[in-house]
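Re: the request from the purification team.
They wanted to know what the chain is likely to look like in 3D before they choose a buffer screen. I agreed to run a prediction and write the result into the notebook, where they can find it.
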Amino acid sequence: MPFRPFIVDVESSGLGCESYPIEIGLALEGENRYCSLILPADRWTHWDTAAQDTHHISREVLIKYGKPLNYVAKGLNRVLKGLTVYSDGWVTDKLWVTRLFSEAGIRQAFTISPLECILTEPQMEIWHTTKDSIIASMALTRHRACSDAFIIQETFYRTRMKTQHNTTH
């Protein structure tokens, strides 16, 4: 049975160098998921309305419902301690998770690696069509961290199942 890697996805205030994490989602074993809105640090003021149009999370929602940085960082460490979690947007997701832990003043107890490190070439060849069919079959309309992490994990699983005769893993 192909494994389902733990997946992390991060929504942010924008894509520029001043951006910061606003929501983090994990797809774990089975149906287990972790998701949290993140209360911005006082000095995190950058806000890109184009990013908000994508994830539909307003700064006001973050202020009202976001969890403190140290609460989120400790929760992630508790769930992921000593593990490797994978991201399909590693360059930015790793940056935002590092920014979260740095601002919280907490040492990160897990590793984030690029999803490409565990994808085979046959998986990559059918990735986008498989992902599109998963999104369509689930009728997902929201671009949010937890559902995105699940979609990535499910796409990995299905592409591995379809191509496993070509792999030794």
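For the purification team: The two ends are 10 Å apart (CA to CA).
Please add any questions underneath this entry.
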